[in-house]
Amino acid sequence: GPEGARSYHPRALYIAILSLITSNTLTGVLFAATFLSQSGKVLGEQFERLLVNSFTRIVQILAFNIPPAAAMAAAILLGGWAIAFLMTLVSNLRFRAQRKGRLLTVRAGIVTKKEYYLAVERINYVMFRQNLITRLCGFYSAFLNCTGYGKERNELAVLLPAVGDEELKRSLRLLLPEYRISRRKYRPSLRTLSRFLIPPLTIMLVIVLFFGGLYLLFPRFGRTTLFFGLMAMLPAVWWLFVKIAAYFHVGIGIKEDIYTFRYTFAYAFFTVTVHKDKIARVEVRQSLFQKMSQCADVVVHTFSEKHYHLRMHNIQIDEVEAFLRIFGR
Question: What global pTM score does this model have?
Fold first, then answer.
Protein backbone atom coordinates (compact mmCIF):
# COMPACT_ATOMS: atom_id res chain seq x y z
CA GLY A 1 0.00 0.00 0.00
CA PRO A 2 0.95 3.69 0.01
CA GLU A 3 3.84 4.80 2.22
CA GLY A 4 2.74 5.24 5.81
CA ALA A 5 -0.52 3.32 5.26
CA ARG A 6 -1.62 0.38 7.41
CA SER A 7 -3.80 -2.25 5.68
CA TYR A 8 -6.10 -5.06 6.80
CA HIS A 9 -6.96 -7.96 4.44
CA PRO A 10 -9.20 -10.67 5.98
CA ARG A 11 -9.33 -14.27 4.81
CA ALA A 12 -12.39 -15.52 2.90
CA LEU A 13 -13.29 -17.66 5.96
CA TYR A 14 -13.73 -14.47 7.98
CA ILE A 15 -16.14 -13.07 5.37
CA ALA A 16 -18.15 -16.31 5.75
CA ILE A 17 -18.22 -15.84 9.55
CA LEU A 18 -19.49 -12.27 9.03
CA SER A 19 -22.28 -13.67 6.83
CA LEU A 20 -23.09 -16.27 9.50
CA ILE A 21 -23.44 -13.55 12.17
CA THR A 22 -25.47 -11.03 10.17
CA SER A 23 -27.62 -13.01 7.68
CA ASN A 24 -31.30 -12.07 7.92
CA THR A 25 -33.87 -14.71 6.92
CA LEU A 26 -36.52 -12.11 6.05
CA THR A 27 -34.12 -10.36 3.64
CA GLY A 28 -33.50 -13.65 1.84
CA VAL A 29 -37.21 -14.51 1.63
CA LEU A 30 -38.03 -11.06 0.21
CA PHE A 31 -35.20 -11.36 -2.32
CA ALA A 32 -36.44 -14.81 -3.41
CA ALA A 33 -40.04 -13.55 -3.72
CA THR A 34 -38.89 -10.58 -5.81
CA PHE A 35 -36.76 -12.87 -8.00
CA LEU A 36 -39.69 -15.22 -8.63
CA SER A 37 -42.02 -12.34 -9.41
CA GLN A 38 -39.60 -10.64 -11.81
CA SER A 39 -38.63 -13.92 -13.49
CA GLY A 40 -42.31 -14.46 -14.29
CA LYS A 41 -42.49 -11.04 -15.94
CA VAL A 42 -39.25 -11.41 -17.90
CA LEU A 43 -39.25 -15.11 -18.84
CA GLY A 44 -42.97 -15.85 -18.67
CA GLU A 45 -45.36 -17.48 -16.22
CA GLN A 46 -44.36 -20.97 -17.38
CA PHE A 47 -40.79 -20.44 -16.12
CA GLU A 48 -42.11 -19.05 -12.82
CA ARG A 49 -44.37 -22.10 -12.37
CA LEU A 50 -41.40 -24.36 -13.18
CA LEU A 51 -39.35 -22.75 -10.36
CA VAL A 52 -42.20 -23.01 -7.85
CA ASN A 53 -42.96 -26.64 -8.78
CA SER A 54 -39.26 -27.56 -8.56
CA PHE A 55 -39.06 -26.00 -5.08
CA THR A 56 -42.20 -27.89 -3.99
CA ARG A 57 -40.77 -31.22 -5.22
CA ILE A 58 -37.50 -30.62 -3.34
CA VAL A 59 -39.46 -29.93 -0.14
CA GLN A 60 -41.49 -33.12 -0.61
CA ILE A 61 -38.31 -35.17 -1.02
CA LEU A 62 -36.68 -33.66 2.07
CA ALA A 63 -39.84 -33.71 4.23
CA PHE A 64 -39.26 -37.15 5.69
CA ASN A 65 -42.13 -37.86 8.13
CA ILE A 66 -42.76 -34.12 8.64
CA PRO A 67 -46.20 -32.54 8.08
CA PRO A 68 -46.26 -30.81 4.63
CA ALA A 69 -47.11 -27.35 6.00
CA ALA A 70 -44.32 -27.60 8.57
CA ALA A 71 -41.85 -28.78 5.94
CA MET A 72 -42.75 -25.88 3.66
CA ALA A 73 -42.35 -23.34 6.49
CA ALA A 74 -38.97 -24.80 7.48
CA ALA A 75 -37.80 -24.82 3.85
CA ILE A 76 -38.80 -21.16 3.37
CA LEU A 77 -36.96 -20.09 6.54
CA LEU A 78 -33.84 -22.13 5.77
CA GLY A 79 -33.84 -21.11 2.11
CA GLY A 80 -34.30 -17.44 3.04
CA TRP A 81 -31.36 -17.61 5.44
CA ALA A 82 -29.16 -19.34 2.81
CA ILE A 83 -29.95 -16.63 0.23
CA ALA A 84 -29.22 -13.86 2.75
CA PHE A 85 -25.95 -15.61 3.66
CA LEU A 86 -24.85 -15.66 0.00
CA MET A 87 -25.89 -12.02 -0.55
CA THR A 88 -23.78 -10.88 2.42
CA LEU A 89 -20.88 -13.09 1.32
CA VAL A 90 -20.81 -11.75 -2.26
CA SER A 91 -21.15 -8.09 -1.22
CA ASN A 92 -18.21 -8.33 1.24
CA LEU A 93 -15.72 -10.54 -0.62
CA ARG A 94 -12.38 -8.85 -1.37
CA PHE A 95 -12.85 -6.67 1.69
CA ARG A 96 -9.96 -4.29 2.34
CA ALA A 97 -9.46 -1.61 4.98
CA GLN A 98 -6.61 0.88 5.03
CA ARG A 99 -5.62 3.63 7.46
CA LYS A 100 -3.45 6.56 6.43
CA GLY A 101 -3.30 9.66 8.58
CA ARG A 102 -6.83 10.78 9.49
CA LEU A 103 -8.41 8.82 6.62
CA LEU A 104 -9.86 5.29 6.78
CA THR A 105 -10.52 3.66 3.39
CA VAL A 106 -12.83 0.64 3.03
CA ARG A 107 -13.26 -1.40 -0.18
CA ALA A 108 -15.47 -4.48 -0.73
CA GLY A 109 -17.50 -6.44 -3.30
CA ILE A 110 -16.96 -8.53 -6.42
CA VAL A 111 -20.18 -7.89 -8.36
CA THR A 112 -20.71 -4.31 -7.21
CA LYS A 113 -17.44 -2.84 -5.97
CA LYS A 114 -17.69 -0.06 -3.41
CA GLU A 115 -15.14 2.27 -1.86
CA TYR A 116 -15.62 4.49 1.18
CA TYR A 117 -13.31 7.23 2.46
CA LEU A 118 -14.03 7.99 6.11
CA ALA A 119 -12.72 10.82 8.25
CA VAL A 120 -11.72 9.23 11.57
CA GLU A 121 -13.07 12.14 13.61
CA ARG A 122 -16.53 11.52 12.08
CA ILE A 123 -16.71 7.99 13.52
CA ASN A 124 -19.20 7.94 16.39
CA TYR A 125 -18.35 4.52 17.79
CA VAL A 126 -17.09 1.02 16.99
CA MET A 127 -19.45 -1.91 17.57
CA PHE A 128 -18.43 -5.56 17.95
CA ARG A 129 -21.15 -8.13 17.39
CA GLN A 130 -21.39 -11.84 18.20
CA ASN A 131 -24.02 -14.54 18.27
CA LEU A 132 -23.92 -17.44 20.73
CA ILE A 133 -21.94 -19.72 18.39
CA THR A 134 -19.29 -17.14 17.43
CA ARG A 135 -19.03 -16.09 21.09
CA LEU A 136 -18.27 -19.69 22.11
CA CYS A 137 -15.72 -19.88 19.25
CA GLY A 138 -14.16 -16.54 20.22
CA PHE A 139 -14.98 -14.59 17.04
CA TYR A 140 -16.17 -10.99 16.66
CA SER A 141 -17.38 -8.90 13.73
CA ALA A 142 -16.68 -5.16 13.99
CA PHE A 143 -18.83 -2.35 12.55
CA LEU A 144 -18.59 1.42 12.45
CA ASN A 145 -21.18 4.06 13.12
CA CYS A 146 -20.06 6.85 10.80
CA THR A 147 -21.92 9.41 8.71
CA GLY A 148 -22.66 8.01 5.23
CA TYR A 149 -21.24 4.50 5.70
CA GLY A 150 -23.50 1.45 5.70
CA LYS A 151 -26.67 3.49 5.23
CA GLU A 152 -27.95 1.84 2.02
CA ARG A 153 -30.50 -0.97 2.21
CA ASN A 154 -29.00 -4.33 3.27
CA GLU A 155 -25.55 -2.72 3.55
CA LEU A 156 -23.28 -3.29 6.52
CA ALA A 157 -20.84 -0.71 7.91
CA VAL A 158 -18.06 -3.30 8.30
CA LEU A 159 -14.68 -2.56 9.84
CA LEU A 160 -13.49 -6.12 10.57
CA PRO A 161 -15.53 -8.96 9.00
CA ALA A 162 -14.38 -11.40 11.70
CA VAL A 163 -11.48 -11.59 14.12
CA GLY A 164 -10.52 -13.94 16.90
CA ASP A 165 -9.86 -12.90 20.48
CA GLU A 166 -6.10 -12.53 19.95
CA GLU A 167 -6.42 -10.62 16.66
CA LEU A 168 -9.09 -8.20 17.88
CA LYS A 169 -6.92 -5.72 19.77
CA ARG A 170 -4.10 -6.00 17.20
CA SER A 171 -6.43 -5.27 14.26
CA LEU A 172 -8.14 -2.40 16.11
CA ARG A 173 -4.72 -0.93 16.95
CA LEU A 174 -3.80 -1.18 13.25
CA LEU A 175 -6.85 0.68 11.90
CA LEU A 176 -8.30 2.70 14.78
CA PRO A 177 -5.80 3.01 17.64
CA GLU A 178 -7.99 5.81 19.07
CA TYR A 179 -10.49 3.15 20.23
CA ARG A 180 -9.62 0.61 22.91
CA ILE A 181 -11.67 -2.15 24.54
CA SER A 182 -11.57 -2.23 28.33
CA ARG A 183 -12.58 -4.93 30.78
CA ARG A 184 -15.91 -4.86 32.66
CA LYS A 185 -15.61 -2.62 35.69
CA TYR A 186 -19.34 -2.32 36.46
CA ARG A 187 -21.50 -5.44 36.08
CA PRO A 188 -24.59 -7.31 37.35
CA SER A 189 -24.30 -9.04 40.72
CA LEU A 190 -25.09 -12.70 41.34
CA ARG A 191 -28.41 -11.83 42.98
CA THR A 192 -29.63 -10.38 39.65
CA LEU A 193 -29.01 -13.64 37.73
CA SER A 194 -32.69 -14.57 38.06
CA ARG A 195 -33.62 -11.36 36.20
CA PHE A 196 -31.77 -12.70 33.16
CA LEU A 197 -33.38 -16.15 33.39
CA ILE A 198 -37.04 -15.30 34.14
CA PRO A 199 -37.99 -13.98 30.62
CA PRO A 200 -36.93 -17.09 28.63
CA LEU A 201 -38.21 -19.49 31.30
CA THR A 202 -41.59 -17.70 31.21
CA ILE A 203 -41.74 -18.00 27.41
CA MET A 204 -40.90 -21.73 27.65
CA LEU A 205 -43.68 -22.27 30.21
CA VAL A 206 -46.22 -20.45 27.99
CA ILE A 207 -45.22 -22.60 24.98
CA VAL A 208 -45.64 -25.83 26.99
CA LEU A 209 -49.08 -24.76 28.29
CA PHE A 210 -50.29 -23.48 24.89
CA PHE A 211 -49.25 -26.45 22.75
CA GLY A 212 -50.07 -28.92 25.54
CA GLY A 213 -53.60 -27.48 25.58
CA LEU A 214 -53.88 -27.73 21.77
CA TYR A 215 -52.69 -31.36 21.92
CA LEU A 216 -55.40 -32.24 24.46
CA LEU A 217 -58.15 -30.29 22.66
CA PHE A 218 -57.33 -31.49 19.12
CA PRO A 219 -55.74 -34.96 19.40
CA ARG A 220 -56.42 -35.51 15.67
CA PHE A 221 -53.69 -32.96 14.89
CA GLY A 222 -51.40 -34.22 17.63
CA ARG A 223 -48.39 -34.86 15.40
CA THR A 224 -48.54 -31.43 13.79
CA THR A 225 -49.06 -29.76 17.18
CA LEU A 226 -46.02 -31.52 18.65
CA PHE A 227 -43.88 -30.50 15.69
CA PHE A 228 -44.83 -26.82 15.88
CA GLY A 229 -44.49 -26.91 19.67
CA LEU A 230 -40.95 -28.26 19.30
CA MET A 231 -40.14 -25.62 16.67
CA ALA A 232 -41.43 -22.89 19.01
CA MET A 233 -39.46 -24.32 21.94
CA LEU A 234 -36.10 -24.36 20.13
CA PRO A 235 -35.65 -20.55 19.90
CA ALA A 236 -36.89 -20.20 23.50
CA VAL A 237 -34.27 -22.69 24.74
CA TRP A 238 -31.64 -20.94 22.61
CA TRP A 239 -32.67 -17.61 24.18
CA LEU A 240 -32.22 -19.16 27.64
CA PHE A 241 -28.61 -20.04 26.76
CA VAL A 242 -28.12 -16.50 25.40
CA LYS A 243 -29.43 -14.97 28.64
CA ILE A 244 -27.15 -17.17 30.75
CA ALA A 245 -24.18 -15.98 28.66
CA ALA A 246 -25.53 -12.39 28.88
CA TYR A 247 -25.02 -12.39 32.65
CA PHE A 248 -21.29 -12.90 32.05
CA HIS A 249 -21.21 -10.34 29.22
CA VAL A 250 -23.20 -7.26 30.29
CA GLY A 251 -21.24 -4.43 31.86
CA ILE A 252 -19.34 -1.17 31.49
CA GLY A 253 -15.59 -0.56 31.20
CA ILE A 254 -13.60 2.69 31.21
CA LYS A 255 -10.09 3.44 29.96
CA GLU A 256 -9.39 7.18 30.20
CA ASP A 257 -11.99 8.87 27.92
CA ILE A 258 -12.88 5.68 26.01
CA TYR A 259 -15.93 3.83 27.35
CA THR A 260 -16.78 0.18 26.60
CA PHE A 261 -20.43 -0.84 26.88
CA ARG A 262 -21.46 -4.49 26.73
CA TYR A 263 -25.10 -5.48 26.27
CA THR A 264 -27.36 -7.96 24.48
CA PHE A 265 -30.34 -7.52 22.21
CA ALA A 266 -32.50 -10.51 21.16
CA TYR A 267 -29.97 -13.28 20.34
CA ALA A 268 -26.94 -11.03 19.72
CA PHE A 269 -24.09 -9.84 21.95
CA PHE A 270 -22.77 -6.32 21.45
CA THR A 271 -19.65 -4.56 22.67
CA VAL A 272 -19.47 -0.84 21.85
CA THR A 273 -16.42 1.33 22.36
CA VAL A 274 -17.08 5.07 22.23
CA HIS A 275 -15.28 8.29 23.14
CA LYS A 276 -16.84 10.23 26.00
CA ASP A 277 -17.43 13.24 23.70
CA LYS A 278 -19.69 11.10 21.48
CA ILE A 279 -22.10 10.30 24.34
CA ALA A 280 -25.15 12.58 24.23
CA ARG A 281 -26.71 11.55 27.55
CA VAL A 282 -27.00 8.75 30.11
CA GLU A 283 -30.23 7.58 31.76
CA VAL A 284 -30.76 5.30 34.75
CA ARG A 285 -33.98 3.29 34.71
CA GLN A 286 -35.15 1.22 37.65
CA SER A 287 -38.34 -0.82 37.90
CA LEU A 288 -39.99 -1.78 41.17
CA PHE A 289 -38.53 -5.31 40.93
CA GLN A 290 -35.08 -3.92 40.16
CA LYS A 291 -35.34 -1.72 43.23
CA MET A 292 -35.92 -4.87 45.29
CA SER A 293 -32.83 -6.45 43.68
CA GLN A 294 -30.77 -3.26 44.13
CA CYS A 295 -29.96 -2.95 40.44
CA ALA A 296 -30.84 -0.69 37.49
CA ASP A 297 -30.53 -0.37 33.71
CA VAL A 298 -28.03 2.12 32.31
CA VAL A 299 -29.19 3.59 28.98
CA VAL A 300 -26.57 5.45 26.91
CA HIS A 301 -27.60 7.70 24.01
CA THR A 302 -24.91 8.43 21.43
CA PHE A 303 -24.49 11.09 18.76
CA SER A 304 -25.36 9.47 15.40
CA GLU A 305 -27.47 10.02 12.28
CA LYS A 306 -30.28 7.87 13.66
CA HIS A 307 -31.45 7.81 17.27
CA TYR A 308 -29.58 4.92 18.86
CA HIS A 309 -29.10 3.86 22.45
CA LEU A 310 -27.25 1.14 24.33
CA ARG A 311 -28.93 -0.52 27.30
CA MET A 312 -26.97 -2.37 29.96
CA HIS A 313 -29.40 -4.42 32.07
CA ASN A 314 -29.31 -5.06 35.81
CA ILE A 315 -26.10 -3.27 36.83
CA GLN A 316 -25.63 -3.08 40.63
CA ILE A 317 -26.99 0.26 41.87
CA ASP A 318 -23.84 1.19 43.82
CA GLU A 319 -21.77 0.55 40.67
CA VAL A 320 -24.20 2.65 38.60
CA GLU A 321 -23.61 5.53 41.03
CA ALA A 322 -19.83 5.03 40.79
CA PHE A 323 -20.04 5.08 36.98
CA LEU A 324 -22.09 8.30 37.00
CA ARG A 325 -19.52 10.00 39.26
CA ILE A 326 -16.74 9.20 36.78
CA PHE A 327 -18.87 10.16 33.76
CA GLY A 328 -19.78 13.50 35.36
CA ARG A 329 -16.17 14.62 35.85
Answer: 0.82
